[in-house]
Amino acid sequence: MPNPIAYFALMLWPLVSVVLFRRLPPERAVIWTILGAYLVLPPIAEFDLPLVPDMDKFSIASICAFACALFILKDRVRLLPRSMIAILLALGYLLVAIPTVLTNREPIVFEVLAGADPIRFETWSLPGLRLIDMASVLSNQVIVLLPFLLGRHYLGTDKGLRELTLAIAIGGLAYSIPALFEIRFSPQLNTWIYGFFQHSFAQMMRDGGFRPIVFFPHALWLALFMVTALVSAVALARNTEGQEQRRWMVAVVYLLIVLYLCKSLASQLYALGLVPVVFLAPHRWQALLAVVLAMIAISWPMLRNLGLIPLEAILAQAEAISPDRAHSLGYRFDNENALLQRAHEKDLFGWGGWGRNLVRHGETGEILSIPDGRWILTFGTFGWVGYLCEMGLLAFPMLLLFLQIGKAGRSLSPFATPMALILGATMVDMLLNDTLVPIMWLVAGAVLGYAETLRFGPEKAPRPLFGDGPVIGRPRREARQRTLL
């Protein structure tokens, strides 16, 4: 169980956010409010409040960043994108909660059959979704999208993309210190500071050593974050000169070593594929690769249904590398098969919450299969509609960026396509892990905002409510010069 320090850290973050927004430029304040919470606040610990989603480090950071933008910066944050496709995807992502709740009103009953003429004895049941649950699900969907809106509003420029790239690289370099500590002395920091260990300790041991986890939900999440930091450092090394470029080259080598020590094969493969592309490939090729990665992620359930994914061949390749990794991957595939069959029973709008999407024993209700990948979790909960809207919101910025690159010419930001590649790699990783976090929504929003600027031109001052889309807040009365820390 989390100790009082964990809950105090969560309660303190709104104050930290206020300080960040008062001391830093808007772009940095938004980034570090969300990224900082991801790096230092306790995982899993949350405030369970009635009628609203649980307040954990993700939701608290998202709400704080949005509230500070409204009430400290006094900015008018546009609620809808400029592209009609993005608007429809966002509305679908939010409103899918309504049919999901309405089609899951019935309880799921677990029972025992006894006697020659079967008599049913109810042993347990999962409650049906109530109309009041609709408000909780809708509010959760809104909170999830807040970083997406903030990224689009504040980071969809060359300056914003550079600040985002720089922050992720610096965050990775800073986080490498506690990560190396845990690689050497075992994962203990979360236990020492916040009073609990957030996952199975056995999963932190690999190849005769330890995998770091620090304050992340799992070691695989930390390894993926190191990939994003590495790609960001490569982008900075490619687009700087002189002494600064040499420093970033050293950072790239250092982060490669740290990533290797994290002992995550998938993350190492992402780095092996992305680093040379970001170093050497033209921006159009980078954007094309990002789109390809996104399309693979989106089409995965359809390809699985059609039997077009060579699962046995994939397992054979994993077996050649490591029997332990092959066993882990095979376990994931078996779980996905069972959960996919369960999801197809309500494949349009899903099963909703309360664990109704999980495979359970028919008599005891014991959970038999647990989702690992984000895709099967979303698909089982919100069906095809929710899945396509979520994945579409992540993929559409990359597609729009690719389509607009030719128009940008030499004026294209050199940090747009590396951010798109980070987003594409995350979407692929979502096939294996539930690694969609607010900082990735921030990246998606930034890429979309920049691609929309290429498509529609610089955004004008937002009109009240129904100009180019609803807005919240009011404009700042005067521009303020901020001291960069």
SSE layout and pairing:
Blueprint (H helix, E strand, L loop, with lengths): L3 H20 L2 H15 L16 H15 L5 E2 L5 H12 L1 H6 L5 E7 L4 E8 L4 H24 L3 H28 L3 H6 L10 E2 L2 E2 L8 H20 L3 H20 L3 H16 L2 H23 L5 H11 L1 H21 L15 E2 L6 E3 L4 H35 L7 H14 L8 H19 L14 E2 L13
Antiparallel strand pairs: 1-8, 2-3, 4-5, 6-7
One letter per element, helices H and strands E, the order comes to: HHHEHHEEHHHEEHHHHHHEEHHHE
Radius of gyration, whole Å: 23 Å
Please summarize the sheet with the most strands: 2 strands, antiparallel
- Shape annotation: globular
Number of helices: 17
Please report which band the strand proportion falls in: under 5%, 5-15%, 15-25%, 25-35%, 35-45% or over 45%.
5-15%
Structural class of the secondary structure composition?
A: mainly alpha
Account of the 3D structure:
This protein is mostly helical. It has three domains: 90 residues, no CATH class; 209 residues, no CATH class; 120 residues, no CATH class. It is built from 17 helices and eight strands. It has a two-stranded antiparallel sheet. It is globular, with a radius of gyration of 23 Å. The C terminus is likely disordered.
List keywords for this structure.
about 475 residues; mainly alpha; 3 domains; two-stranded antiparallel sheet; 17 helices; about 5% strand; globular; disordered C terminus
